[in-house]
Each structure stands twice: as structure tokens, then as C-alpha cells.
Amino acid sequence: MSAxxxxxxxxxxxxxxxxxxxxxxxxxxxxxxxxxxxxxxxxELDQKLWVAxxxxxxxxxxxxxxxxxxxxxxxxRVRPPEVVAACEWxxxxxxxxxxxxxxxxxxxxxxxxxxxxxxxxxxxxxRRLLQIQGKPDSATLTLADIADRGELLAAMRFNGxxxxxxxxxxxxxxxxxxxxxxRTHGSVPDRHKATPGIDRPRIEAFFAxxxxxxxxxxxxxxxxxxxxxxGEPTLAAADATRKVQAKLDDYxxxxxxxxxxxxxxxxxxxxxxxxxxxxxxxxxxxxxPIADLPLAPVTPSCxxxxxxxxxxxxxxxxxxxxxxxxVTPLLGAREELAETEWQAIKQQFAPLQALMAExxxxxxxxxxxxxxxxxxxxxxxxxxxxxxxxxxxxxxxxLVDLEKLIRLRRDLVVLLNxxxxxxAFYRREGAIFQAxxxxxxxxxxELTVQVQDTAKHAVLAGLAKTCLAYCDCTRQGQKMSIxxxxxxxxxxxxxxxxxxxxxxxxxxxxxxxxxxxxxxxTSVAQAFFAPYKKFVRVIEEQVAKRAAASEAAGQGTLxxxxxxxxxxxxxxxxxxxxxxxxxxxxxxxxxxxxxAAIGVAxxxxxxxxxxxxxxxxxxxxxxxxxLIGIVAxxxxxxxxxxxxxxxxxxxGPILDAxxxxxxxxxxxxxxxxxxxxxTAHVPPGARRVAxxxxxxxxxxxxxxxxAVLALxxxxxxxxxxxxxxxxxxxxxxxxxxxxxxxxxxxx
Length: 747
Known about the structure:
Radius of gyration: 51 Å
Strand order of the largest sheet: 11-13-12-15-14-9-10-17
Number of helices: 28
Low-confidence stretches: 1-11, 582-588, 725-742
């Protein structure tokens, strides 16, 4: 991969600077791809203006094969130099790069640049492929035509993978050679066929061994009587002799010692203790303990029996082969072999034994001369088949280029609008990093990203200042993890363990369960009510704790009382026996001090409340301002924090944690957030046919609240002198009032 440039590429002196167009969205300037020239000259765009600088090839909603073709170094990530190289590569092979904006997987052959050498080769290969597929008159090539080339290549005799299978060879002799190479040197899988075959390294190694064995056989001239006393069978006789030579020398040496001194005979033969040790175990005639015994009983006669039961059972087959291939042809048929005869046989085979020491140590050395010559005759035909198959690799490379061109024609503009700019995301066309839509808590969340490691992802994604819910999704034994951004609505009922349904980009539904939650405000309005909700929640928790404690105490009291009732007779009898006089009755009395303390406490609280209410009423016309101040003091800090976080809410940390390299701050403001997380609404034109029969009925509590509110309004009106201005006018028109007025003073 080429080095990453530190600045934008400068145009050549003969080329005018390209004029780009940008749009300001998400807090960053993003380039707009209007023409094919914008794509062809992408290398001139300063990389500081790119939205992303790297993205993974897996875990996103984009064709993985296309990304693999762009990923030149195969590291599983796509970077700007690779994107630029792909743009320049495809534009160099098209007559007009504007066709890239169409996003089609159908390639008219007229779109290829015949004046360009690379384009001309692709046109020729496309016509060849159409000819093979039986469509010689077709002027278009589709991605399906290229994608199905595997079946086409599997049916072809030569498919360009450099592997020759037995079916590739039409000659029986060549097919036999291929089978022998597979037997001795193994096989390799064919890329396009199910049958394994052989490649060039195996073919060359096999024929090198065969040639070495044939050269060795050339030294063993069958017409040389001194070297080959038996002609061609001498090799087999010498080989059989070599296998038993050490054992025969040992046997005749023992016999010579026994002939020298008869007292040594017992020591030279196996002792009874040795046979006792053999008998204590399970016997195996080919095992080493038996094979180590002498070939036959040691006697001073120095004669070895060649047949019968006197031969060591572990060496019966080798001695029989030696007698058949060496003794009988040289000495004639006989039952025994004397030491002098054995020395004569060794002397005749001595020149050949020296030559056999130079024999190649490979599988071909065991083959006969006729077999070696037969294999060597198939070398040139087999190499010719290999050459023809390797020559087809050129066509395979051109087919890969055709596939790459069609895929880039279809997918390149999509990648650019999700990599160089985020047009697809901000226009809500479905960005490639969006995994699908999560339905949960009466909302649909479109900003969902696939996650590999939840704990690792949450460390960086928390910097996005966004409410994030990590979910485990399961479907028919499959499992994946996602993170969903809740950017609208409240978060009161989001908690770990809550279930929903996730729809991926293919429309498949998954069961989703929240496993981790990162809380952040979703709007300023939601932050306004947050303190009150927390206050109510704290009160509910405290009330619940007190109620539970009271219930536990009550249960203990009832249990104690029930125990006393059931054992009252026993307690009474015991008390009568110990205390003759009746004790004074104290149960049921009320502690006067406790009642007084409670009264004092209630009075103090009432006095404080009355004082506060009085001061509040004394404000008069400033009461609304006071109310606003109180609300601002309570909700203001929460709203300020929410406003600051909403200004910092961005997409970058979420994608960075998923393996992307985001170049700028991709902001998610309140308006965009309201589109990414949509709450439930009754559709336009719909109507409710009936009221909810299970709605809450407030009853007496509602009447009491209304009465308190009315009383507060009356007190407020009285304190602000609203009633004083109306009372004299009313009294002037009242007869009763006139009768009660004092008489006017006399003059």
C-alpha cells in the first residue's frame, strides 16, 4: 500500500485545479460527487476534508467481496490510498466515468475504453466469456455472468489454477503417472474442482527422483557378468541378500566359536532363562525379542538350514526370499547353506553391493527399470498439460478484473458517500455502518451499529454524549451484539433486561435484550422534568422502605401477640403461683409525654409552613416571578448540562469504537436526533372510537386538589387587594348595607 500523503496531491502543471463542491452538514464540510471527474480526481482532494480515514471490511452493510477487491494489502481495513487507487483504476478503463454515478451491475461493453490497452483486453475477455456462455451476440455483461464463473471453470479442462487432476489427463499413461505422483508426493486441492490434483513442485520433484533412479540403473548394466551375474534379477537377489547379511554373519560366527570350543555352545545359544522371559509375555513372532535370537540353533557344523522349523520364526520370510532369489540361482536348489557357500555368494555380490550403496534413497528407487522408463515417457505430455493450465491463469486474472470493474461500477459511489462524505447518513438513505432498526419502549431507533466487544466499545462510545443501549440479539441460534442510540423521548423506562425487536438491513427480525445502558439526556425538555422525577422517585423509594419496615414490625408484633394468646393459660398459672396479689393493670394507657411531643412537632411544622406561605403571599404581584425563579433554580442546572451535552453529541466516538477512523466531529443535533429515534404517534386521519375504560379515576383526591387550588387563589386575591376594590361598589347597591350604614353627621 502506498504511503499516506501528508497533504493533498498537487495537480500537474498542464491540468487546472479541480473545482469541488461542498455542503455544510454535521458540523463539517462534506464533498459532493456530481460527476465522474470528481471520482477520477479524488486523489487531489485534501484528506483533511474526508469524513473517514479508515473502515473495516466486515461488520458493515456493504458487499464484502467489493471491499476485499479494494483492500489491496488484505489487512481487513480500507484506507484513503486504497480508495483513491480503486477510483483511478476503474476510471482508467471506462470511456466516461460518469456511468459510475448510476450504480448499476450491468456493464455495456461500449462503456469500456477500447483505446486503452487495459480496456481493450477487458473487452476481448468479456466477449470470450459471453462466447463460452452461449451469448455471442450480447453486448452487456452482468455481475451474475462473472459471479457464476466458478461452475464454468469447474467444467473446463484447463481452469488456470496450475493443478492437474487425473481427469485432466486424457492419456492412460499420463493418468497413471498423475496417480503415482499423488501416491508418493501427496495432492493439492483444485480451486474449481472437487477432485484433488498435483501442481508444478510435485511434478518436478517426482520426475527428479525418477531420473535419479534411472541414472543409477544405467550404471547397473545387465550385460556386465562381473557386476550382474544373474542379469536383471541380480538386483532383486542382491537386495534379498543385503536384508539377511548381518544375521547370516552373526550365525556363522557363532558356529565358528562353537567349533573352536564345544563348551561355548551353551553360552552361544539362548539360555532357559531367556526363554522363560519370553514365555512370561504375549508372543509376537515379529517382535524384537524373538528377532534378536540366532537364525538357527548354533552347532559346530557351521551349516544353516534354509527350510523347516529350525529357522528363527521372525526370519522365515527373509531367509526364504534369500534362498529363492540368490542361493538357488547361484548354487542350485538345496536345503542347507554352508559357511563357504555363504562367503562365495557375498563375493559374487560384492561389486553390486558397493553400487547399491550409491542407490538413491527415494520411492522411485524401488521401481523397476521398465516402470521408470514408462514414467519418464509421460514427463513431456504432463508438463505440456501443466503449461496449458497455467496459461489459462491470464484469462482468470482478466475475469477478476471484469468482476472488480462491475462491482466498482455498482458500489463505488455508495462507498464514497459513506467514506469520503456521510451523505447517505445525513440524508437518511441508510449508511453502511447502520445495522438496522431497533423497536423498543415505543420508539424506533435507526442509529444502530454492530458491536464485537461491548465492554471495550462502551469505553470510547461514552464520549459521544448520547444515550446508548447495548443489546444482545438472537435469532434461530444466531447471536450478535448491537448498540442503539436513543436520541429522542425520555429514558425513564430504559433499563437492563428490557426486551425489544431488532430488524437488520435484510429485514430479518431478532430478539433484542438490553445488556448495558449509558445514560445521557435526549432533549432539554426531558432534562427540565428530570429533577422532579428524581425527587418523586426518591420519595417513592423512602416510602416503600418505611412501609416495608412498618410491615415487618407489624408482623413481628402480631406474631408476638398470637404467641401470648396461645400460651395465656400457662402464663396465668405461672403468675398466680408466684404472685398472690394481682398486679395493677397498665395495658392500654397512652403516654402523655409522647402525645405532647407529637403535638409540638406538628405545631412547629405547621408554623414553618404558614410562615413560608405567608412570605410567599406577601410577594404580591411578584409571585409569578418567584415561581419562575424556583423552577429555574431546580431545573436550570439540569437543563444547562443537557444543553451542553446535546451540543457535544456526535457520531464519531460510536464509529471509532467499531473500528472506523472518523476524521471530524459528526454532530447529531436535536433535529436529526428526532428523526433517528421516532416515538409512537397515531397516524394522521385516525380517530379513537371509545374512551379508555381503564383510565385512572381521581375521585375524591381530584376534588380535594381542586379545593386546595381554589382556596389558594382566594387567599392570593385577598392578599393582592383584588376584593377590596369591588366590595364598596357592591355595598352601595345593597339595601341591607344602606340600613346598617351610620347616619350622616348633621350640619
